[in-house]
From TrEMBL:
GO molecular function, one term: transmembrane transporter activity
Record key words, sorted: Membrane, Transmembrane, Transmembrane helix
Organism this protein belongs to: Devosia limi DSM 17137
Keyword set includes Transferase: no
Highest taxon listed in the record's lineage: Bacteria
InterPro entries: MFS, MFS_dom, MFS_trans_sf, Proton-linked_MCT
Residue intervals passing through the bilayer: 12-30, 50-69, 81-98, 104-128, 140-160, 172-190, 220-243, 255-275, 282-303, 309-334, 341-361, 373-392
Protein name as it appears in the record: MFS transporter
Lineage: Bacteria, Pseudomonadati, Pseudomonadota, Alphaproteobacteria, Hyphomicrobiales
Listed Pfam families: MFS_1 (PF07690)
Ranges where the Major facilitator superfamily (MFS) profile domain occurs: 12-396
Length: 405
């Protein structure tokens, strides 16, 4: 299998900068949705479960669409894919401002926004990086892209809260939707598609998926990634409301999300760097184990501003640090040719976890009046995912090599 990279249409540095800005905008706006939980449910009379279901559907729609978006980008072109996704994403966010019922919100904030996120997500950006960056540097560059996504979370949490405070939640959503259109001109730098590499078979979608799923290490990776989505979505959507329930202000909730994003810049860069030096599967096992420990300690102590920010910092280091390692393993298993599609399959599992985390958070709160059961489930799942990653083998899948004529 060839380990060479494909020369990008623009200088590599320009491609990386444009991709990182796209990742920052897209992820930053998405991760600010939790700040809208209290004002929207209060003004519209939505139940916490109804709002949670809309956000859960968003994550599920994102996960379902991601493999197809990745395959489309692999075959047609990354730039076109991302530009189209930005339009759909912006439309979904703006339409959320005019969604008075839970049912309509499930369509606009759920399906439309989720599909838009998938088409212009950092998963598609990383596919462009994967075809352009030498294999020995991919883990590091994936870490850089993930860190950029985290910076977006850090930047957009106070921006979104400021919009809500100054203009109300409806106008805030319109402004955020308009900001997504900035992705369109940036997508020009990522134009191009992934070509077949020497020594690698060119497989149809379903055959490539079947062969990939037959590789045991990939199955374990996909299953373990479910837990990452569960943790991230539950905390991102329900943490601000949980902190208010514990007596803290909405501003503390927004800054908690921002602190997670800030510290994840460090975590993502460190993860990308270490992924080129140490076994990626063992790093992933360590991350999931430490998440379980962090959640356990957070539940053990009284909730104050100090413990909230400390927990946010700890989870921030562990937040998206799984992404460069998971993407690096997918690229190692199957090569850059199938990066968009097969990382998209892994990400679908991640989004199934996101769906469960967001939905269960709303259901458990409505039934019990608190989130404790979901926090404890997060601990158990973290330990299980740590165990699942240990047997993964860090080597290429021979089933994707070109067979001799």
């Amino acid at each position: 299998m060839s380990t060479s990279s494909i020369r990008p249409a623009v200088p590599l540095l320009v491609l990386i900068i444009a991709g990182c800005i796209i990742a920052a905008i897209g992820n930053g706006i998405r991760t600010s949705f939790g700040l809208f939980t209290l004002p929207m449910t209060t003004d519209l009379g939505l139940s916490r479960e109804g709002w949670g279901m809309a956000m859960a559907i968003q994550n599920l729609a994102w996960g379902i669409a991601q493999p197809f978006a990745g395959n489309f980008a692999d075959r047609v072109g990354t730039g076109r894919t991302i530009a189209a996704g930005a339009v759909v994403y912006a439309a979904g966010v703006i339409l959320m401002a005019f969604s008075p019922t839970a049912g309509i919100m499930m369509v606009t904030g759920g399906i439309i926004t989720g599909v838009g996120i998938a088409i212009c997500s950092f998963s598609v950006v990383m596919a462009a990086f994967g075809r352009s960056v030498p294999v020995e540097k991919r883990s590091l560059i994936f870490g850089v892209a993930t860190a950029a996504s985290s910076f977006g979370q850090f930047a957009f949490a106070p921006i979104s809260q400021g919009f809500i405070n100054a203009f109300g939640w409806q106008t805030a959503l319109i402004y955020l939707g308009m900001m997504l259109l900035l992705i369109i001109p940036l997508s020009f730098a990522l134009r191009g598609k992934t070509e077949q590499t020497v020594g690698q078979a060119d497989l149809p979608f379903m055959e490539a998926l079947s062969k990939a799923w037959g590789y045991g290490s990939y199955r374990l990776l996909v299953i373990g990634f479910f837990v990452c989505g569960f943790h991230l979505a539950f905390i991102n959507v329900h943490m601000p409301a949980y902190l208010v329930q514990c007596g803290l202000s909405p501003e503390v909730g927004s800054w908690t999300i921002a602190v997670i994003g800030l510290f994840n810049i460090v975590g993502s860069l460190l993860s990308g760097y270490l992924g080129g030096k140490l076994p990626k599967q063992m790093l992933l096992a360590t991350i999931y184990f430490l998440r379980a420990v962090a959640i356990g300690l957070f539940m053990l102590f009284p909730v104050t501003e100090l413990t909230a920010y400390t927990f946010a910092a700890a989870m921030g280091v562990l937040w998206l640090s799984t992404v460069p390692l998971t993407a690096g393993l997918v690229s190692l298993f199957f090569g850059a040719r199938y990066m968009g599609m097969l990382y998209g399959i892994a990400f679908f599992s991640h989004q199934l976890g996101s769906f469960m985390g967001v939905w269960l958070g709303g259901v458990v709160f409505d039934l019990t009046g608190h989130y404790d059961l979901v926090w404890y489930l997060g601990i158990v799942l973290g330990l299980a995912s740590a165990a699942i990653h240990i047997p993964i083998n860090e080597r290429s899948a021979t089933s994707f090599a070109m067979k001799p004529a």
